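yo

u said u wanted the structure for the complex thing, so here. seqs first:
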Amino acid sequence: MTDPETTSQDTIEQPTLEQLREALDNEDPAAIRELLANIHASEVADLLESLPNQDRQRVWWLIDPDSAGDVLAHAQESVRVSLLELMQPQEVVEATRSLDTDDAADILQDLPEALIESVLLAMDEQNRQRLASVMSYPEDTAGGLMDLDVIPIRADVTLDVVNRFLRRRSEIPDNTDSLVVVDRDNRFLGVLPLTAMFLNDSERTVGECMNTSAEPLPATLPAAEVAKKFEQRDFVSAPVVDEENHLLGRITIDDVVDVIQEEAEQTFRRMAGIEENDLFAPIWSSTRRRAVWLGINIITAFVAAAVIGRFEATIQQLVALAVLMPIVASMGGVAGNQTLTIMVRGLALGQIGKSNIQPLLRKELIISFLNGLLWALVVGVIAYLWFGNHLVSLVIGAAMVITLASGALAGALIPLLLKRIGVDPAIAGGVLLTTVTDVVGFLSFLGLAAIVLALV
Amino acid sequence: MTDPETTSQDTIEQPTLEQLREALDNEDPAAIRELLANIHASEVADLLESLPNQDRQRVWWLIDPDSAGDVLAHAQESVRVSLLELMQPQEVVEATRSLDTDDAADILQDLPEALIESVLLAMDEQNRQRLASVMSYPEDTAGGLMDLDVIPIRADVTLDVVNRFLRRRSEIPDNTDSLVVVDRDNRFLGVLPLTAMFLNDSERTVGECMNTSAEPLPATLPAAEVAKKFEQRDFVSAPVVDEENHLLGRITIDDVVDVIQEEAEQTFRRMAGIEENDLFAPIWSSTRRRAVWLGINIITAFVAAAVIGRFEATIQQLVALAVLMPIVASMGGVAGNQTLTIMVRGLALGQIGKSNIQPLLRKELIISFLNGLLWALVVGVIAYLWFGNHLVSLVIGAAMVITLASGALAGALIPLLLKRIGVDPAIAGGVLLTTVTDVVGFLSFLGLAAIVLALV
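structre next:
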């Protein structure tokens, strides 16, 4: 949260990372193996993500094959892809064997199309069918997130029968907080919380004790919606059904946590034009993606330059204008970006709609007007002290108020317009905003100056 | 996730929001009451957050007192504070009665100091003690997150005894996936998963079946660390202990989900200088907070202006320089900001340390150099076509390469330096970066131009 935590967060990881670094430098595979054996698969994945590409490969060869699947499941997609490239189909089969179906499906989906086939063929029939079922839904839907480790029971049996049925199993899947009640045709009827098994008399039937108000998730529900349901209802697990209410599987909270984190980060990453895993991505792919962003920005920059170009004569007459003009554009950009950031996030969270857009717009305009006045005053005074020209002071002050208000208006309206035409506001919003604030900033400042100079 | 989801996310909420709007406009309290009764408390909280202040109050009066506590627990802090201001101490007591201890403590902590006392006094002894225990830990630690709804059992009893003990209870707290095993002095020994109750013979003892490898969380563990543990280990709940290993309570996944979401958003919000709930915060507090950010930026802007001021004579000689100079600074800013964003996030996630900082720095420099060359070429050609002056083209190209490389270097080093001196890199990083890219951008471009003009 605040700094102390961030710091302590590091102190947990850094020693392991340093030890690993040392073992790599000493070319000491035994030390690396021991280190890896003592930490959780998710931490191994974190470590691999933090390593440069060639070290990552060296460490990967030393991972216990039994935990390779778990490590892959916890790794970021780009890292996973780079590790999968090092593996034979049979190794992938071995690694995914012990995983939940949803995790196995995620890994398989990162393989080249041709390899997916050969991996599926190397599996036994049951696993292949289970995987095919999950993989038939897009990765970012309830169907793609579900695993198949659900325990279905019938409504007409007694709790005692369920108890004996459970005892015959050798294990109960992780995160099982309830059993799912289905009819003869595998249609969803309700859920029986495990705790109900303790609270009720064992002669009562499942049908009497089950919770019928729990609504199952449709397999086609987008992942973002799934996450919202889990957050709002504090689910630990939820059953997934097809269009005809047939039980398909279940989603557990651990998969949803990943979605929630991804959701929250996504907007902001897009606003900076960087990829999910840019920090450890190969140089070439980072360069390419970021170049696109710079290329878009250069259009903005030239539009702004063109505006300045219209006023070459004015600048020639009073060079102080060239000195001060970036201040106006910069302040407008910062103010507009504040509005843009909260609008983009508010839209992503579904907090903004027809009913509240008017008061929000009004609020943003008032804020920017108040801040515009305040900083116009400050900048005006400093400009006067610097250049001793009260006309320049008045002009820059007026330009600041205009530019900050335009920045707020653009920051609020651009995301709404982009959304309406189906473009993600996080991606193009910032560039469009800067275009507006630069153009208005330079135009209002140099334009007002030209008028004033002509009058004097 | 991608656009279609964001859109569908809205279609769920918007109808409710529109209906509410309509009912408010029609001054129809019955319709509002009915609407509120049909949605989950967390959705009521979402609705309240989306309303302007006076509408929020009107709706709040119509909420069923029985669900008021739940709504408060789900609301954002600033909204909660504004609602608490409308309540009498006795109403707060009523509202918090049915809540988990951690949720009740969160609400109480938002009350003015004097009111906390009177609310605590109005409670019965047991609740008061439970609340005081949770409130003795900071809100962002394991102790502050925990609730006290843990079911402790002894190691020497049989599963059958546990079974009968559970049956005597009228309910088992939500998210109970395991019972906590303690010794005579309430010291933590291990956990007994509920599923173990089904899989083992009922004559076996708790001690034989419990999981002793589960580590409890210390009450002082920062919330960010707690979230990390839950994410890595896929916990549903985890016991919390004091320094002497005494069992204090438990943390459940639903509280952790809030922490995870908060964590992920925090960095980026700070980078834009906006508050947690700026979208619906009162105008005055938004204005103040954002003014600070603009005030910091104005220093940056004047430093950049001062650099330009040194070259007034050069600009006078060739006004094209004033037209083109914002391009250099803007491109450097965008490139630097890409590096800054991923470094700040990488640091917050603990992914960056001594062992990998060198390859990361090298990578960022290479990327910025490649992009610098590419865009130097593009800008150089366009500048030549525009002004027909090959010297200006050469100068702007060279300045672009220098500025983009400095931007990457500054984007990578500034967060590291800020962190070392204990300042949150998310807060001050962007402003410092812009100062560097503006100064280097204007200095390299105008400086090179001055030298070239002097030589010609």
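The radius of gyration of chain B is 30 Å. Chain B touches chain A through 144 residues (CB under 8 Å).
cya
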